[in-house]
Amino acid sequence: MDSRELVTLLADGRVYTLVELAQQMDRTLPQLEACLASLPALGVKVLQAEGKVQLARPIELLDASLIGRFLSPTARQYLRQIHCEWVIDSTNQMALRGIAQERYHGHVYLSEMQTAGRGRRGRQWVSPFAGQVAMSIVWQLPPNTPDISALSLVVGVAVCHALQGLGIQGVGLKWPNDLLAQGKKLGGILLEMQGDPQQQCHIVMGIGLNVALQDTPLHSIDQPWIDLLSLQPNRAMSRNEVVASVLQSLFDWLVRFEEQGFAAIRPAWQALDVYAGAEVMVQRGEEYIFGTAAGVDDSGALCLDTSSGRQTFYGGEVSLRPKGTL
């Protein structure tokens, strides 16, 4: 029995009788009970008593048509198709498989849950059911696009501006690909490339945002985290609206990047830099370099003022942390 059909029916949070659900789904009561028993494995909490059932809290499921309606006509012209999946390994992996099947520029992949979500440097990205935005966008860059290594910074700026447009303040960026609020991780970015940057090159831009995680056991997350609901506790946060806002902003900033390069976007990134002027350390292999964070240069490289002068670092080789944290 399909758990997707059952969760979709229960998503509004109202109380259903088991008989009513079985009739709507054209299933026997034992079949329905078996499907209900499978929901906790997804992380979906169900309240059940005296022949009645409801979700512990309503769930807004991802809806491609609703996301499309939120987008402006200008944004829709960059969009080829939105793919909303149920449970997959990762949206980036799905996007890469899509490229192999000739689904290129403008395809967007979303999932209610990832079982093998990935962060930077191969780290696990925990992605509980319906608690996050997990999305990947395929974008084709022109041949010989300069500053391609700065693209994750451009995506970060786009996401922050999208959240600002939704009234969410206080979100900043940690070089090269983390979104932070109140010193805790709100989201992350993972970019993967297919093709030759000097010829035809497709970029998969993976974005993960915590939306509402309070009811989810997240023992496997190894750092302090925060979600959008915590930042706006009095507002119901629509994941579909968040997705649309991110896409709208992302398309605008990507076009600007293609036309003007990262140097034109650098001031916007610097304004969001959570470590600007802070004492930090950079880990490069077994080596630690200490200094004052001095933003990024026109190529997107991290600038660090050290006792021996200014040094620059690139995203693939190092990790940035506040001074004194190992």
List the helices and strands and how they pair.
Blueprint: H1 3-10, E1 16-17, H2 18-25, H3 29-42, E2 46-49, E3 52-55, H4 64-70, H5 73-76, E4 81-88, H6 91-100, E5 107-114, E6 132-141, H7 151-165, E7 171-174, E8 178-181, E9 184-195, E10 201-210, H8 228-231, H9 239-260, H10 266-272, E11 279-284, E12 287-296, E13 302-306, E14 309-313, E15 319-322
Give the beta-strand count: 15
Question: Strands of the biggest beta sheet: in what spatial order?
Answer: 4-5-6-10-9-8-7
End-to-end distance, in Å? 47 Å
Shape: globular
Task: Estimate percent helicity.
Answer: 25-40%
Strand content: 25-35%
Mean pLDDT: 90
Largest sheet: 7 strands, mixed
In DSSP terms (H or I, runs of 4 or more residues), the helix count works out at 10
Quickly give the structural class: alpha+beta
**Rg calculated over all Cα atoms:** 21 Å
Give helix and strand order, one letter per element, not per position. Answer: HEHHEEHHEHEEHEEEEHHHEEEEE
Unreliable runs, pLDDT <50, ≥5 residues?
Answer: none
What features would you highlight for this structure?
alpha+beta, seven-stranded mixed beta sheet, 326 residues
